[in-house]
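Q: Got a minute? One more chain.
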Amino acid sequence: MTQQLILDLLPPSAPTLDNFVVGENAAALDALRHWEAGRAIYLWGAPGAGRTHLLRAVAARPDALYHGPGANPAALKGIATGDLLEHKLIAIDNIELLDDAGQAALFALYNRWREVAAAKQGFALILAGDRAPLAMPLREDLRTRLGWDLVFRLELLSDQDRAEALKTRASERGLQLSPEVISWVLTHYARDMSRLSALVEALDRYSLEKHRAITLPLLKDLLASSQT
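A: Always. Here it is, folded:
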């Protein structure tokens, strides 16, 4: 509850490839920076590994489409069967949640992607799910297609990576977090960097409002005040 309230106070910054904390995921990030039409990339990993961050970041360009949970599968089916292809990149998130209609639409889109891969209408297909291709709870012909091109497992950040990222986020705002604050956050707060970044931003605002330095008591005051 506290973590969600903090996010409501100050939403995290828009996801970009530059503000993604790399950790052990340099190869995946490099592939996303250098994607090409006609190629496909499948990312998988546990919640908090950065799948949605990366897909939203790479699909932020005007000629891209981000298709997330709850989106109408008819949009994908329309792209797969339409005469014109307006997108150069299509990102589809949380594919483990696709229902029968969504899976049928993705199957059709994969076929269209392969059909036009070497043509002027070619587009990149970037997908993400919570497990490896052959372990996905999808129809068999989709599971095999997930492994047709590049596949990367996203690793969760280590505590050292998260600590360095927290210091960097704070430094970017002209702040300095004490080892005590960082240790407490790593032990008691969320693992994913979008929530951690939002917490740093909320701390910055709260310290200015209260005219107090950022200390562990201030952090606990912020979390307590968000529950009232």
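A: The chain has ten helices and five strands.
Q: Perfect, thanks.
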